[in-house]
Specification:
This protein is of the alpha/beta class. It is 45% helix and 12% strand.
Length: 348
């Protein structure tokens, strides 16, 4: 069928099924009747998708297949293997998803976001090319930051703290920030805060700030449920408190931001935990455990005050994260795809 996106020529639909598992649940999830039923049903969907994919690939005859994982890639890439069509996997996170692990043995190449020694893939078949990101995520000089601050109505001077827990928000992070905010604004009279609370959390966070802050302080806290121009707020931020998703960290690395990361521990595979650890081990971020944050809502303050009290430390942290950035990842991956499609050797 024709694609809705003008940059996509055609789109096709095949059956696929996912294997449901939940980080931290262990063997207990295997005893859940609903989970077992859905997993068995989806196993049948995978077999159906394999036949559909084999037929479609025979019809389309692509030179190469590219996948970023997810359960839909399994029948497609197995069918590609049966058809003799090379495929490339891409991992945004430090831990490859289950789908990529299943299809890994027959992949022509593994493209990864972080240094390739982080991954268990064969080094000779692994290329650390980064994560494709929007071109808007780039470092800003002082002049452009000041212009952007004025456009965003974030005051003419002082520092900016960006807090984001992702599109759906993080209740633990939101609660912690609300409780820390009176002390934070009193300690730093020049501080402006942009708090992206998440669509489902915005109303509650607004109400909490209304209760906790006096009117003069509320003026310095910009609350968003969601924003499509995150690159602008992150671009002017001096410090960012964030989750540890692979794409988010790639975007912030491209901007060279000093980051305090609170990885989401509940996501399958614990990939955010591993992302954060890899970056923390390289001293490129400050890491705060969410479990600790739930017990002590002020657990963010030591890392936050260290970076705000000592701008040189924030700058050094941002430079270390920037050293891992690969802002031209999209172009590099495209060139590798062309090489493999045309049968040229790929140098990794």
């Amino acid at each position: 069928m024709p694609a809705d996106d003008p940059n996509v020529d055609r789109q096709y639909v095949v059956r696929a099924g996912k294997f449901r598992r939940y980080h931290g649940e262990g063997w207990k999830q295997l005893l859940d009747v609903k989970t077992m039923y859905l997993n068995l049903r989806d196993a049948v969907f995978v077999l159906m998708g394999l036949w559909q994919s084999y037929w479609l690939l025979g019809k389309i005859r692509p030179d190469v297949v590219f996948t970023r994982g997810s359960f839909v890639s399994v029948p497609v890439c197995i069918a590609a293997r049966l058809r003799g069509i090379p495929y490339i996997t891409h991992d945004t996170d430090a831990i490859p998803g289950l789908a990529n692990r299943i299809i890994a043995p027959w992949a022509a190449l593994h493209v990864v976001a972080l240094p390739k020694e982080v991954y268990a893939y064969p080094a000779a078949k692994t290329a650390a090319l980064g994560v494709p990101i929007a071109r808007h995520f780039t470092m800003l000089d002082t002049k452009h930051r000041n212009v952007l601050r004025e456009q965003l109505q974030l005051g003419e001077a002082g520092r900016v703290l960006l807090v984001t827990g992702g599109g759906n928000g993080s209740r633990a992070l939101n609660t912690a920030m609300v409780e820390c905010m009176p002390e934070l604004l009193e300690r730093y009279p020049d501080l402006w805060v942009v708090h992206v609370a998440g669509r489902m959390e915005e109303a509650a966070v607004r109400q909490r700030y209304k209760q906790e802050l006096v009117a003069a302080d509320r003026r310095r806290v910009i609350i968003k449920g969601f924003t499509s121009n995150m690159y602008q707020y992150s671009g002017v931020a001096d410090v960012v408190i964030t989750r540890a998703g692979g794409t988010t960290m790639a975007e912030l690395a491209a901007q060279g931001k000093a980051c305090i990361v609170v990885p989401a521990a509940f996501l399958s595979g614990g990939h955010q935990l591993k992302n954060a650890k890899v970056l923390a081990d390289r001293k490129a971020v400050k890491l705060v455990d969410e479990a600790y944050l739930r017990e002590d809502h002020h657990a963010l303050m030591p890392a936050l005050t260290e970076l705000l009290d000592t701008p040189s430390k924030a700058e050094a942290l941002g430079k270390k994260l920037a050293a891992l950035a690969q802002p031209h990842a999209a172009h590099a991956i495209a060139m590798v795809l062309l090489d493999i499609a045309e049968g040229r050797p790929v140098h990794v």
